[in-house]
Amino acid sequence: MDPAELTALVADVRRGMIPAHVYNDPEIFALERDRLFARSWVFLAHESEIPEPGDYVVRRVLADSFIVARDEDGQVRAMFNMCLHRGMQVCRAEMGNASHFRCPYHAWTYRNDGTLVGLPFHMDAYGGEDGFAKQGQTLLPAPSLGIHQGLIFVSLDPDAPPLRDYLGDFAFYLDLYANQSEAGLELRGPQRWRVKANWKIGAENFAGDSYHTPHTHASVVDIGLFREPKASKRKEGALYTAGPGAGTTYKLPPGDLDGKLAYVGYPAEMIERMRARWTPAQHALVEDDGFMVSAATLFPNLSLVHNWPKIDDAGTVVPFISLRQWQPVSANETEVLSWFAVDAAAPESFKRDSYKAYIMCFGSSGMFEQDDVENWVSITDMAAGTMARRLNLNSRMGLTSSDKPLKPPLADFSGPGVAYQGFGEFNQRHWLSMWSDAIASKEVLL
Fold it and tell me: pLDDT at residue 445 above 70?
């Protein structure tokens, strides 16, 4: 892309006017691959997916495949899934348990910590260590690896800041999902499917689009599955931006912390553990401010959702938490990975009902999911043509013509960052500003 064209595009995005073609443009996708995903912290897996020595999953950062394994000493490893010999993919199963990984091409074999231990005909083919020094050879480790609340991230940048520093203030909100007890989260899944939509659309939506909920998901309200998406409820919630993340909340009815958590369906024993685990400021966000976290996105492509639908004819309300990753495949295709997440210490009956709530709403057959994807595929299709290069999409909701917020930020908000109440696109603009910074960077990781 011409530098002047990129500069103009970024300037438009930063003022909230989004060139429509960015949602289906191979040149933009190339910039994202080389400048954004080459340097960002990207979620790969959760420790609960690899609880025992030898457990592994295979995950990607775009085209780069990684074996995420727990080695025999219990250490979590993330290793580039490419044989040192001729470049074959070493591990071809998506998950399992193995003490060693053997390349199917020439049978070079690696321990689950990545160490090369097997090389057929080493003496005959290489003259032993003199021709190829096997000792000390390992699968290429991820340049940077970090773990927060069991969530495993990698960065392709060896100079990436520590993960906790990167998370910054967003960790406060992330921990409301991931730190409900000392036991931590337990993940199931992921479900995986592909949609013919640009990856940015879902990431932006989960970052803070409360405006679409009463319209796109109107049928969910009409059938009485979920009491919260009504327009009157959504505009009472808060939109917050903090560090590299942004999210939405619902406004809960008056009451104390126990009453508010019971309102969304948590049993007493889980409430007791949350009360003990959360910080005073996290208590205050829910109890004093009356805000309960809902959807959120950690830049670039990890989203979370926390909702509480009715799961039966008796009107039983049960909450669920889901993690999802928007894995770019191309400018117009995304692989979605969706996990069900639940506190590991929760009662088995709660886990069962919470999973039922999750699959009703999200996952490949969820009602919310189907509503959303219909929109996202259409946006991507419309962004492919000539006319899309003549249109800037208006993402300035909540601002006046002089760039001032229609309403001031919430003064009494117990969480870090900045929060607004009502409808607005502060969160999408926050996400897009980080996206702009990444693609405008002249540094390319080699």
Answer: no
